[in-house]
Specification:
This protein is mainly α. It has one domain: Farnesyl Diphosphate Synthase. The chain has 15 helices and two strands. The chain has helices at about 5-10, 15-25, 30-45, 50-60, 65-90, 100-130, 130-155, 160-185, 190-215, 230, 240-245, 250-260, 265-280, 280-300, 305-320; strands at about 95, 100. A two-stranded antiparallel ribbon has the order 1-2.
Length: about 325
Amino acid sequence: MALQLKDIQAPVANEMQAFERKFRDFMKSNVFLVDQIMSFIVKRKGKQMRPLFVFLTAGVSGQISERTYRGGSMIELLHTASLVHDDVVDDSNYRRGFFSVNAIWKNKIAVLVGDYLLSRGLLLSVDHGDYDLLKIVSEAVKEMSEGELLQISKARTLDITEDIYYDVIRQKTASLIASCCAVGASSSGATEEEIAKMKSFGLNVGMAFQIKDDLFDYGTDEIGKPRGIDIKEKKMTLPLIHALSNSSKSEKRAVLKKIKKHSNDKKAVNQVIEYVKERGGIEYATSVMNAYHQKALDNLEGFSDSPYKEALKNLVQFTIERSK
């Protein structure tokens, strides 16, 4: 039977409900327009995976406290700010199936809303002296920005290697999940060694999570994101990188030409997908994802058994078994 997120949340269900109320309070503004947009954002929240990682890691490594709520809120505020800014940069009109902030209120307001969210996150930590949590989250925001810029720079030439791919996903995706786990541990009174172990755990989960996301590109239209979207956007992901590394120079040139010049041609995109499958790209990426999954589980060794730890293990399993 497939894992359900609501079952995984069970050990921290009450804390997650309380978190939603506190998070809404942290976003409030006296300016009506800002408050209106904050309500719009809260109503369209996703699976709340990031706060879940924060609370479960706090439960595994110590005691859930008010600092845990503030740490989770800081991450959500700063991450939401980055998403609002991303939609402006990408000129995207949708976020999680709903209109994006910039689609409704235009780019100028969206950028200012992102700035507001960023400042709320910073003030939340400064007002309470949570400088250790602020440092963890600020490092993640820096890494995410650098990862995005690295991917953009490489997309122009399509010269990304496997090592560079790992650098990109470590910075773009894994750094945020790592910060969730480090914040959870730090907020609970864990030792420096335990915080480092939880950060490493989150990093490995994040790597597995992103590889799973990249594998969706080679699935069907009914599962996950639309098939071939990464190829259309000229993003070099692990299945494709591995397939190219096992090809002759002439084959590699032909495939790269299709991606560079015909990425909007559905037939050409499907040909690239089939080529990746034939060259073992799917199997290879799946094996790497499973290796990161195992590394994450190994990071949890040494922590006492508890419902929090069991839920955290199930959450890792959920990230690699999810269908979207």
